[in-house]
Amino acid sequence: VLMSITGTNRGGKPWTPKFIDKIEVEKCIGCGRCYKVCGFDVLELIEKPFEGEDEYGDDMGNKVMSVARPENCIGCEACARTCTKKCHVHIQL
Question: In this predicted structure, what is the pLDDT of residue 71?
């Protein structure tokens, strides 16, 4: 039986962590904002697994973010809050 992890925040309100599951690489622009905000070494820049252009016809660069160490994620979702492309997918355990 899988039980949900729930705790309380500093103000006493219930909080359920949502852990990173994947990054939608077709949306990711490899800006590194999520990497910079994560203090738990979860993410890593990798070579883009596809070629493409953005909606303006510009080359999208050659790097995207990946979930390198999901076991380090504490479920804070800071990476998703800082992402302008909304490419992070989180799950509740």
Answer: 97
Q: CA 42 to CA 7: how far, in whole Å?
A: 22
Q: Which helix (H) or strand (E) holds 7?
A: strand 7-8
Residue with the two structure tokens 């990173």? 20
Phi then psi dihedrals of residue 71, to 5 deg: -70, -15
Low-confidence ranges of the chain (pLDDT < 50): none
Instruction: Output the pTM of the full model.
Output: 0.79
Provide the 10 A C-beta neighbour count for residue 28. Answer: 21
Torsion of CA 22, 30, 26, 55, to 10 degrees: 150
Cβ neighbour number for residue 65 with a 10 Å cutoff:
25
